[in-house]
Amino acid sequence: MKRALDDISPMLLTTLRFGSASLLLYLVTPKGSLADASGAPRWPALQGGALTGLLLFAGFACQTIGIQYTTPARSAFITGLYVIFTPLLSMGLGMRRPSVTSFAGAALALVGLYLLTGAASGGVGFGYGETLTLFAAVAFSAHLLAVDHYTRRHDKRAIAFLQVAVVAVLAMAPALFVEQRRFVPTTSLFAALAVTSLLATALAFFVLNTVQSWTTPTRAAILFAAEPVFAAITSWAVEGELLTGLAMIGALLILAGMLTAELGPAVRARRQPEAAL
Hints:
Layout: H1 10-27, H2 43-66, H3 72-79, H4 82-93, H5 100-116, H6 128-151, H7 156-177, H8 187-211, H9 217-224, H10 227-239, H11 245-276
C-alpha cells in the first residue's frame, strides 16, 4: 500500500482494490444467498452487507485522510484503540459481556501497540488527523461487531462480497469528483493492486467472515492486534528494517495479550470444577 500510493491517489486505489476483490468474491458467493428462486432480493442479507460495508468504508476513509495530518506511528497507535473499543461497544450494545481476561488481554495488546509502533517517542497533541483516526478506530470496532452479528444470520460469503462491493462503490464517488486523481501505470503499482486485492481484501475478508462466528468479536480484535507484528516481520524481510528494543517488547506484549484472552477462560473453566469439589 505504501509503495502503491506513490503512483495512485488514495480513493482511486481503494476503488480499484475493493472493486477487484468484490469481483473475486462474487465468483465464490452462492447466488441463492443474494436472491431467492424467483429472483427477489434477500433484503435482510443485503442490508447486513450494506451496513458492514458502510462501517468498513468509514474506517478506511477516516484512516486514509487522517494519516495525511499526523504521523504513521500516531495513526497506527490510535487505530489500534479498536482493540479496546470492541469489548466496550459489545458491552454497551448488550451483545456479549466480555470476560475479565478479555479486558486484560486487550490492555496488554494496546500497550504493545503503543511500543511497537514507536508512538512512545512521538510528540503530544490531538489534532484533526488524530481525531479522524480515532473515528476510524471506532468504525473498525463497530465493523467487527456487525460482521459477528450478520454472519451468524446470513451466508458468510454473501456478507463478505457485499461489504467489499459497498466499499468500492462508496470510494468511487470521492475518487471521481473530490480528490485530485493520480494514476501512473507502473509494475510496482499493478503488483500492489494484485496483492492488496487478492490477499489483503478478497482472501482476508472471506476468511474473516467465514470463521469469526466461531469466536467472539473481542478475541477477534485482539488477534487483529498482531497485525503490526507481521508488519514488522515483513518490513524486516523486505526493507531490512530492524525492531528497536521497545518495539520488540511491544511485540511480546501483543502476543501476551492474545494468550491472556485465549487461555484465560480455559484456565478459569478448569478451576471451577476443582472449586466445586
